[in-house]
Amino acid sequence: MASMKTRLLVGGLAILTVGGGLWLGLAGSGRTPADAPAPSAPLANTGAANGNPAPLDPAARQALLNDPAVQGYRARLQFGADYQSFINTSADLDEAQRRQRAEALAKEIDRREAAGELALSEALLLQIGLAQAEGGDEAAQKARADALVARYQALSQAREARNKTPDARFSQYKSDEKRIVEEVMALDSIPDGLSRDQYLRQRLQEAREQAYQ
To answer: Angle CA(10)–CA(11)–CA(15) in degrees, nearest 5?
Structure first.
């Protein structure tokens, strides 16, 4: 039998393949994706003659840490860790703690989506994960998921109305997004030990970076 999380996920993602799907937060904004790949070794000098990374001197290290791109990358890693920690430990929290942390994470998801760091589809996935982690019976979780789907569908339609002629990069991303969602939801097993929603977010991130590079 499909798990509750899978059923919520499938229900939420259904709107991705109907009526053009959810609209990416970057559409028509003129912004570039904030989730650009970070350097593989941001805090080390990889040009050492012996092939081993040499530590940066303190001043260079601090300058690198102060770089906005590095700070943004570290913040995204921290957000991902905070989100996954809540998903993994929510059952151990009391109801008040669980609600407080879920509300804080939901606000951060909204902020990052509004800033163009998350596609609407990714934000919806994360919010549905929170809805499931908050607990309650199946009817309560479904009600929360239905409310999220309605909210994001309305937001998608509003953005679609404002952006009648999306650029070629956005059109390419939307085409790839629909294909990726269908592929991932049809998989019997997920590679690399990831959950289905984690793997989907990874694939969507790669598609967004490719479309906007």
So the answer is: 100
